[in-house]
Amino acid sequence: MNHAAFRTPVGLSDAGLWALQFAALPDDVAGLAKVLQGLLIHEHMPDVYGVRLSDRQRGEPHTRSAEEILERIAVQDPQPLSRARSPAERFAGCCRHYALLHVAMLRSKGIAARARCGFGAYFTKDRFIDHWVAEVFDAARRRWILVDAQIDDRQRTLFGIDFDTLDVPRDRFLVAGDAWRLCRAGQADPQCFGVLDMAGLWFIASNVIRDVAALNNREMLPWDVWGGMTLVDSEIDPAFIDRLARLTRKPDEHLDDLRAVYDDPRIAVPPTVFNAVLRRPEAVSPFALSA
Predict the structure, then answer these.
(1) The pLDDT of residue 4
(2) Which helix H or strand E contains 232, and what residues bound it?
(3) CA torsion, ordered 30, 33, 37, 39, to nearest 10 deg
(4) DSSP state for residue 17 in the 8-state scheme
(5) What is the mean pLDDT of each run of 10 residues along the chain (291 residues)?
(6) Tell me, what DSSP letter sits at residue 6?
(7) What dihedral do alpha carbons 278, 281, 285, 288 form, nearest 10°?
(8) CA-CA-CA-CA torsion sign (177, 183, 188, 192)
(9) What's the predicted TM-score (pTM) here?
(10) Residue 278, Cβ neighbours under 10 Å: how many?
(11) Helix ranges, the chain (H)
(12) Which residues pair with 40 in a beta bridge?
């Protein structure tokens, strides 16, 4: 099985010169996840670590590329990446930042990895929360595994997680296409998929588009909006999302189709996207679009 498309840092996962620091880091999935837990703090969980975010940290979640994230980390604290920062000094991001940096580090080690957009079932009872994880090819077991580098010991306790977050069960994290299929089949309620008060088929469909973009090495922010994304269920093209969901189920079997469908303007990341949190259009670095 050829995983070359997911072994090379490219676009947003290319750390540039900062990747030179990766050589001194562990060469395994678990070791790199531990490093990330000492570098990042989730923007919505500072209280879990007994801190308040600084003005600097409150702006960091909108950082898109691995290169810029690592630059900000180094400017704040030039110590080696292997040295865990105190929670108050960490880079503030979200699940997608953990996944992107994990992918960047793993690819630098020659390990096939990709970011996946979907929904986690382990944060809130009876809800599937908007979430990102890394999908890593386990050469020993000859299969792809889902890895959630965000979940450290404190979060494991907080959320009562009783499974291996280095091999997340597929029913605990649903890639967006699987969530779409379940809801289309009437086996799940679309209103259980989303974040805060935003949920529904429109949210799931938007995450399917984000997942297809990520499989084309465009791992955008969870709140970046472009192309075929909508806030209204009636504006969704169900047949189109059905097709995307099928392609994302087994990406390695459909790489050519995933590359071809990315040319569709409903999926292709444009030079400017809408940041739905900051409520403004933002330019996307041409480097990020050249994956």
Answers:
(1) 78
(2) none
(3) 130
(4) G
(5) 82 95 96 98 97 96 97 96 97 98 97 98 96 96 96 97 97 98 97 96 98 97 98 95 97 96 96 97 81 66
(6) G
(7) 80
(8) positive
(9) 0.96
(10) 12
(11) 29-37, 55-59, 66-76, 95-108, 153-159, 176-184, 201-215, 238-249, 255-261
(12) 91
